[in-house]
Amino acid sequence: MSLFSTDSARPLGKGKQSPAGSLLDTELAAMFRNYKRAVAGSYRALPFEDLQRGAVPSGALQVSPKIDGELWFLVLDEQQAILCSPTGRVVSGDVPVLLEAKAALGRKQGRTVLAGELFAAKAPGQGRPRVGDLGSAMGGEAQAQVERMAYFAFDVLHGGDAEAPQRPPLYVDRLALCQRLLAGGKRLQAIKTEQATSADQVMQRWNEWVEGGKGEGLVVRTADNLVFKLKPTIDIDAAIIGYTDSSDEPEAVGSLLLAMMRDDGQFQVIGACGNMPTEQRKEFYRQLSGKSIASNYRYANSKGALYRFVPPETVIEVKVTDIQGEDSSGDPILRMVLEHSQPGWRTIREMPGVSILHPVFSRVRSDKTVNPVDIRVAQVLERVQIDSLNKKAERLVLPASEVIRREVYAKSAKGQQAVRKLVIWRTNKEKADPNYPAFVVHWTDFSAGRKTPLEREVRLAPTLGEALKIGDDMVAENIKKGWDKVG
Fold this sequence. Notes:
By secondary structure, the chain is of the alpha+beta class. It is built from nine helices and 29 strands. The chain folds into three domains: 221 residues, D-amino Acid Aminotransferase, Chain A, domain 1; 149 residues, CATH 2.40.50.140; 84 residues, q64v53_bacfr protein fold (Single Sheet), CATH 2.20.140. It comes from Nannocystis punicea.
């Protein structure tokens, strides 16, 4: 059985690029998802300001440049080499970076899988690689700039070579394995890594690699497997569209809900910021309280408090440690797109967006106004690649649901009426919006003499057969002697 499908593949120079979901090997797919989740969960942000203050982890450190590309996996299997993304995209065939992998095929032991950064190299003097360059280089099908595609491996997921046939438990040994497998490569290399034991040594690497234009930041690994991402803080301008009350300070905001503007004037939520001085919280409360407007969108903070929506009148600058366009599973982060008018806010639909990490309030941008230039959503494109970020969001019209089964039962006891009802419906929405299940099973239990007269149970099902079985089980469990079917 083939590892992947090329049924929907497009040309990539003389090679092929298969879309998401093309990886057929379930073992590899699970390996990629689990690694992506584990890596995303283990990374810790280390702001550059902390490095300037000398705050770095203690002990022996492995320091590498952070390449601005995408996480892909190099699979060396039998006599072929392919590149796979966490979402199951596959690059195969006569692509220069894969042709270099032929040397690694002769060095590996069994199937071997590496993790690394796929990026588009730039000519000297053109600046460092950026994530958006990769999409441009891989576009154009047969005319794609495949010669620019490069891959720097930084870890081993599976397999090895004659010296280490199994994945070594220590990172330093896995890095050495990457170096042996990819020795002599030009486009295909192990990530450059140097040891450090002090903040001064890490700063030297920063000056050489980051200030020298070779990377967007540093990756610092400790001996106990902690991984730190060291990047410059990012300044972004966004509009305040909502606030919560502080639970600690009277007449102060708890956090601010922020949005940026798309080219067509629509707003897209990017997250919230609650890190600001107390006096600023009070100032925002004086400014925003009493300005609440209607909204058919609900958004809660981490404590469950709902934001009060306000007109988009104030632009603020926040500092963030990172901007992400994917979650830990490699799926796009979806953010609501909103429309503002005189009555208030209306939802359009969720679209691929971003999540901002560790936002800190910097200042009010009184020199900027709420317009598609000053708070443009494209501010994030230097950090992440979001293909549809500037695509107009069309309001999603969902199909009507369809009732499949409805049964009502009644029972009289001691002069009081009890009613139990089963309803099963097909949503017809699961293909249009993945937030909807295919089928819903709803059980209602009403008894006037009970302490809690009305009780409900809701179950979801992916197929009609499973939904009907859930309904049969509910009826068998709850409808006994004395109940009459009345509807």
